[in-house]
Amino acid sequence: MGAKALLFFALLSFSAVSVRQAFAENEEDPGLVMNFYKDTCPQAEDIIKEQVKLLYKRHKNTAFSWLRNIFHDCAVQSCDASLLLDSTRRTLSEKETDRSFGLRNFRYLDEIKEAVERECPGVVSCADILVLSGRDGIVALGGPHIPLKTGRRDGRKSRADVIEEYLPDHNESISVVLDRFASMGIDTPGLVALLGAHSVGRTHCVKLVHRLYPEVDPALNPDHVEHMLYKCPDAIPDPKAVQYVRNDRGTPMVLDNNYYRNILDNKGLLLVDHQLATDKRTKPYVKKMAKSQDYFFKEFSRAITLLSENNPLTGTKGEIRKQCTVANKHH
C-alpha cells in the first residue's frame, strides 16, 4: 500500500474517532432544549406552573420577585442559580449585595423546589426552576407566555465579587446600560423591552430620594412629584422601613405598556427610566412600545429568551443542587 493510501486511511480513522468523540460529547451535553425533562421528570414544568399559581394567589408580589430573579441571576456571567446561594463563612451571597437591594421571596422558590423534589428527587436544577418560575410569573402578571428551553445546571459559587461588573445600577448612564446588555447579545429594542418590567412592582424610597432632595429633579412631572414626596417624606429613608412608590400607579399589578406612556410623561421613578425616554438611541422604541402592547410583548419575549440562555452550565458542568440555598456537599 502506498504512502498516499496509508495517509488516507489514517485520516479516515482519525476523522471517525473525532466524529465519535464529538457525538459522545453531544450526547452527554445537548445544551438547552425544549422540554429537557420530558423523560426524566415529565411533570416538572406543570408542577412549577401549579406552584407559581398557588403562591401567586396567596402572595401577589411573589410574581415581581420571580421576574427580577431572571435578570439578577442570568445577567451575572451565567444563568446558574448562583443568586440563590446563601452566604458561607468564606463567601458573601449575591442576595446580600447592594445590587440585590429589595430582592425578596426566595423562600417561595424553596417551596417550588421541594414540590419538584417530591416528584423527581435530584433531577431538576434550581437554575431551571428560577427561570421557569420567572416565565410563569410573567403570565400571572398578564404578560406573554414565553416558550423557554431547559437543561441548565447549578453553579457552585456565589458571583457576589463580580456582580457590579455585570448588573448596571439604576443611576448609570444609558450608554453603560446599553453596553452591558449588548455583551449578552441583547440589542437596543431588547433592552427597552426588558426595562418594561418596571411596569410592575415598586421602588424603595432609598433608590429615588436623590431625585427629590435637597431639591426636586426638574425633569420630573410636577403632578407626580407630589405623590413621590408623600410616599418618601424623608431625605434619608430607613432602608428597613417599608417606604416605596409604585412603579406604575395606573396598573401596578399588570405587566403592560403603560410604563412607556408614563416615562414619556416624565413619570419615570429612576434615572434610567428618564434616560430611556429621552436618549435618542432608545426613545424611538419607547414611543413604539407606548403605542403597541403587541410590539412590547414581542420584544420582551425575545429579550427574556436571550437573557435566560446567557452562558448556562449544561451537560456535566455544575450540579443539580439538593437545596437551592447551598451547594451540594462533596465527600
TrEMBL record:
Ca(2+) 2 binds at D248, T251, D256. Residues 31-328 form the Plant heme peroxidase family profile domain. Ca(2+) 1 binds at D73, V76, D80, S82, E94. GO terms for cellular component: extracellular region. Heme b binds at H198. It is found in: Secreted. It catalyses: 2 a phenolic donor + H2O2 = 2 a phenolic radical donor + 2 H2O. Removal of H(2)O(2), oxidation of toxic reductants, biosynthesis and degradation of lignin, suberization, auxin catabolism, response to environmental stresses such as wounding, pathogen attack and oxidative stress. These functions might be dependent on each isozyme/isoform in each plant tissue. This is Peroxidase.
